[in-house]
User: Fold this.
Amino acid sequence: MKLLKKEDLINLIIKAINFPKKKYKNTSSLNSFEDWDSIGHLNIMLLLDQKLSGKAKNIKELADADTVEKIEKILRKKKLLK
Amino acid sequence: MLPKNSLKVNSLKKNNPLWDMKKIINKTGINKIWFTKNDQTAMDLGIGAAKKVLKKFNKNSIDTLLYVTQSPEYFLPSTSCIIQNKLGLNSNIKCFDINLGCSGFVYALFTAASFIESKMSKNVLIICSDTYTKFINKSDRTCRPLFSDAASSILVSRSKEKNIGPFLMGTDGSGYSDLIVKEGAGNNNFKSKSKNELFMNGSRIFSFTISQIPKNIKKLFRIAKIDDNKIKKYFFHQGSKIILNTLGNALKIDGKKIFSNLEYLGNTVSSTIPFALKEADKKKIVKNNDTLILSGFGVGLSWGSCIIKWKKLS
Assistant:
């Protein structure tokens, strides 16, 4: 399994929460996007799990990671992000 | 047994204009939910469900009553004792409440099967009943479109063949606060600062489900020395459509093998599995001797799965 890049993570989140890609400037714009709600978060977790070949489901901390930076930190700690 | 009152989930938009109903319904798969009013309790529903079963069965043969609820009539006594009296069951029976939610039916079945196997019981009446809507804030976007009030009842009887089991249960109390009614009980000296409202951390519950349940089912297969090919149908607790779909993908099960009827019932807590079994039986989707998986999981965090051979009492 290839390690995820930060760029991949951002694109995944953009897709999961239906963020208009043209409006993306930085991660803050994703963090504060209204569609990153509980349903959006479930989509992020699902897509991450698919991308990481099923490894994301066992990472409990992801359930509470409500910003790009928090997710990034967790994945780096688990050696799943470059 | 459902209460008389229901509403279409779409209609919640009226009092919650900022809710994206299309997105909510798409994820939950629930179009209709059912609710009790002030004059009806979980016990009332439960008694109603039990009476339907007892129309076809001699109540004097019941030697055990298990009442699964998290909406008790009183903190004490056990509601099952009150039900024993109201149903006119013999006084020499065992009865107690099981304070579990979405795993409750499987735990009750486990208890019934254990009692029967140890020859402590012959005929066990299980009643599941909850009125979660009474705990839910009307503007709670996580819980309001999801939960329904309902009750179900099933009779488990001793037979010559062993049709129930094996079971595989589990608990993770570190997640106790992920689905909780915090106030009104011992932790607050039985007082409430605000209304006793249900709180659910949807992400954590989802994460728990997709990490634990596939492992649990796979281990159950190993214990029973069978595989998916032998299973006619899966009856998961129907928390939401997204959970059923994700479990199906994780276990690589054909989606058609997962029974679902939550669209017009909602999440009826411990009754989702019995309601599903009843409908599947009525529609002849399951027949006698079919091998089924039952799996309940949720509040606690608690989970339990089992394999049964469907054998309806004639």
Observations:
- The interface with chain B takes residues 37-39, 41-42, 45-46, 49, 54, 57-60, 62-64 of chain A (CB under 8 Å).
